[in-house]
Design a protein that fits this description.
heterodimer, A: alpha+beta, Arc Repressor Mutant, subunit A, Beta-Lactamase, two-stranded antiparallel sheet, 39% helix, B: alpha/beta, seven-stranded mixed β-sheet, six-stranded mixed β-sheet, 16 helices, 21 strands, 21% strand, kinase (chain B), FGGY_C (chain B), Glycerol kinase (chain B), transferase (chain B), ATP binding (chain B)
């Protein structure tokens, strides 16, 4: 059968078996049913467990399909889980860059801020967690919008916040293609006058983008003298996104 | 010149970690390994000390590898550790004698009652600052010596060494059976019940009361100061500090002056208030403890409010009840409802710590009705940590006569925004999270870096502290009072559950 991937076929067979066994199955049960070696079955079950499709009972002896398997269209990562995985790395980015750091994720047609670290200058600042941003007008938004295959988040009308906001769908598509090709998103007065930002996508297991991390601040600090986003900050943001992703994938 | 770092080794209850910090106190890399929790009998909790040392030998190189650092770039090692967990080992072979007995272990509850006798649980408080409780090391050490045939005689002959985890680590870092150094620091020693809180030396009266031979005890050193040069894992690097984890967090939060306080939210939670060079005796169930000692300067003291079960209640909700998959999901579940629906969970799993100190108490879920959903229970789980903090803050305000104006928080649970807001609402003060949440490791790094001159002084460290997040109080005072009264009524219902004849 040219072109098909054997391990995926086997994983599909395992899922079918588990779906038909409400009380769950052990490694040996699955191995016997499929005529596969125990080590092979164990590897498949462990991977399916890692991606959240199957769960183990308390003794660890039996596997069954997870609730999440029936709700695959929903976001697989809990927003509070994303925050707890991101918190150390976001702190570190804020300390190094000296700027406000935020972690966001797509929720419907908005980007919700799930974590916010103050600019480390001890000035008065308010926590923005739970507030939403327009995806097309912010770096954090573009960094997740660029990887949203469903198109559900793409607003029908692109609202203008400043004269620099991208309001033409074709230009937005171009901009998102740029984000994908270079791996980060920039913001330059598109949402707030005199404010610029840099954000990068956070990729979970299998490359799925689960959110983005980014910083924002005044243009003169975020951009160089030629008004380009500072390369050192871009590197820091991308390294932070990668560190959070490593943590999420469990291969730190 | 290549960048230099301080390596903090945090030997915690669930895992051992190594974190590298740079000169500005910024976290550079983290490596972590969990160790097994052994539960041989109900109420018993043990760790395999050999496994823990093995983990140290793995996480330290792993942390260096992450940033491509050579051992020569590490200027000092700072050690911090789960406190009160007690271990005996053979001086000649370096092998542990049995497992380490963990701070949560309650096997000594009968022994503690016997030791209290007619004089009560506070009979040693004047000497060591602590009430008799299964939490501290001395009853545990006595238990180990009493229950292993021939061990006390061997201990008297100097063949057996006692240590809390920092002592075990330093001994191994400096060669173990081949010339290892047997030392502890004032903060860890202050949790044994064997050290005189004023003289900072082992106290003969306490040693006699617990029947502990002096020969098993390590030498007590200042928390910050060069202990020795490591020969293992990071050969040639100086060990510059050792502090108990909560004291390390106080140091990492740069609470260097009297009146400054922090609360660390982890498995258990611990609020420490710096009281300067003064030894404040609590009348409201707080512990008197050593905050730190830098070189030959006078020691600084602290009042401590210890809550045994906070983060571990979330773990129980996850592992025991299976209502969530990850600890962070409790916030998602709690946000499915607007309030606790009238339910309160008092997690007196092994009695209550501060300010009650009731070892016979056991947990309750109070206010249970058919209306209560798992969302309400999730909220009650988080609120339990808030209410316990309020009890401790109330007691501390009464002891110190100073009302807390802001609370500096750290630890894993500070990622929980719902809890942080509830704390601000309940305490009616600002709750502030610093830029580095890993304050336990940071404190150990600071104390070690100070000892070797990597950082010049405490003021330099203060300038590294920045606010990363802040929650402001926003709760109606009447509601606050009602909620607290409900909680206190629920706490009353946990008392006297374990009866003497059981």
């Amino acid at each position: 059968m040219p072109g098909s991937v054997q391990s995926i076929e086997r994983a599909a067979a395992v899922l079918r078996l588990l779906a038909a066994a409400p009380n769950g199955l052990g490694v040996a049960d699955v191995g016997n049913a499929l005529g596969l070696a125990k080590t092979t079955v164990h590897g498949i079950l462990r991977t399916l467990h890692q991606v959240g499709f199957v769960e183990q009972d308390r003794s660890g002896a039996h596997y069954h399909l997870s609730d999440a398997f029936g709700r695959l269209g929903e976001s697989y990562l809990d927003p509070n889980e994303l925050r707890s995985r991101a918190i150390n790395w976001a702190d570190s980015l804020a300390a190094r860059s000296g700027e406000v750091v935020r972690v966001g994720r797509l929720d419907g047609s908005k980007v919700v801020i799930v974590h916010h670290v103050f600019r480390p200058d001890d000035s008065d600042q308010d926590l923005d967690v739970g507030t939403t941003l327009p995806p097309h007008a912010t770096a954090l938004g573009k960094a997740v919008l660029a990887y949203d295959a469903s198109g559900a988040a793409r607003p029908k009308r692109l609202e203008a916040f400043t004269t620099r906001t991208i309001t033409d769908p074709a230009r937005l598509a171009e901009e998102l293609a740029t984000v994908r090709s270079r791996g980060w998103a920039g913001e330059f007065e598109e949402h707030t006058i005199e404010i610029a930002g840099i954000a990068a996508p956070i990729r979970g297991l299998g490359g799925l983008v689960v959110g983005a991390v980014g910083l924002i601040g005044r243009i003169e600090r975020i951009c160089d003298s030629r008004l380009r986003h500072r390369a050192d900050l871009v590197t820091m943001v991308r390294a932070t996104a990668e560190a959070i992703a490593r943590d999420l994938r469990g291969d730190s | 010149m290549a960048e230099q770092y301080v390596a903090a080794v945090d030997q915690g209850t669930n895992s051992t970690r190594c974190i590298l910090f740079d000169r500005r106190g910024r976290l550079v890399s983290v490596a972590q390994r969990e160790h097994r929790q052994l539960f041989p009998k109900p109420g018993w909790v043990e760790h395999d000390a050999a496994e823990i040392w093995r983990n140290v030998t793995r996480v330290v190189p792993a942390a260096l590898r992450q940033v491509g650092a050579e051992p020569g770039q590490i200027v000092a090692i700072g050690i911090t550790n789960q406190r009160e967990t007690s271990l005996l080992w053979d001086r000649a072979t370096g092998r542990p004698i049995g497992n380490a007995v963990v701070w949560q272990d309650t096997r000594t509850d009968r022994l503690v009652a016997e030791l209290a006798g007619d004089e009560g649980l506070d009979r040693f408080a004047d000497l060591c600052g602590l009430p008799l409780n299964t939490y501290f090391s001395a009853p545990r050490l006595k238990w180990m010596l009493d229950h292993t045939p021939g061990l006390r005689a061997r201990a008297e002959r100097g063949e057996v060494l006692f240590g809390t985890m920092e002592t075990w680590l330093i001994w191994n870092f400096t060669g173990g059976a081949n010339g290892g150094l047997h030392v502890t620091d004032v903060t860890n020693a202050s949790r044994t019940m064997l050290m005189n809180i004023a003289s900072l030396e082992w106290d003969d009266e306490l040693l006699a009361a617990f029947d502990v031979p002096r020969a098993v005890l390590p030498e007590i050193r200042p928390s910050s100061g060069v202990f020795a040069t490591a020969t293992e894992v990071l050969p040639g690097v100086r060990i510059g500090a050792a502090l108990g984890d909560q004291q390390a967090a106080l140091f990492g939060q740069t609470c260097f002056s009297a009146g400054e306080a922090k609360c660390t939210y982890g498995t258990g939670s611990f609020l420490l208030l710096h009281t300067g060079q003064e030894i404040v005796r609590s009348k409201h169930g707080m512990l008197t403890t050593v905050a730190y000692q830098i070189g030959d300067e006078p020691a600084s003291y602290a009042l401590e409010g210890s809550m045994a079960v906070t983060g571990s209640l979330v773990q129980w909700f996850r592992d025991g009840l299976g209502l969530i998959h990850t600890a962070a999901e409790i916030e998602t579940l709690a946000r499915t409802v607007d309030d606790n629906g009238g339910a309160y969970i008092v997690p007196a799993f092994s009695g209550l710590f501060a300010p009650h100190w009731r070892s016979e108490a056991r947990g309750v879920i109070a206010g249970l009705t058919g209306y209560i959903t798992k969302g309400h229970l999730a909220r009650a789980v988080l609120e339990a940590t808030g209410f316990q903090t309020l009890e401790v803050v109330d007691a501390m305000n009464a002891d110190s006569g100073i009302a807390l104006t802001a609370l500096k928080v750290d630890g894993g649970m500070t990622a929980n925004n719902l809890l942080m807001q509830f704390l601000a609402d309940l305490l009616d003060v600002r709750v502030v999270r610093p830029m580095v949440t890993e304050t336990v490791s940071l404190g150990a790094a600071y104390a070690a870096g100070l000892a070797v001159g990597y950082w010049p002084d405490l003021e330099g460290l203060r300038s590294n502290w920045h606010r990363a997040g802040q929650w402001l109080p926003n709760m109606d005072p009447t509601r606050r009072a009602t909620e607290y009264a409900n909680w206190q009524a629920a706490v009353q219902r946990t008392f006297n559950w374990i009866r003497p004849d059981q």
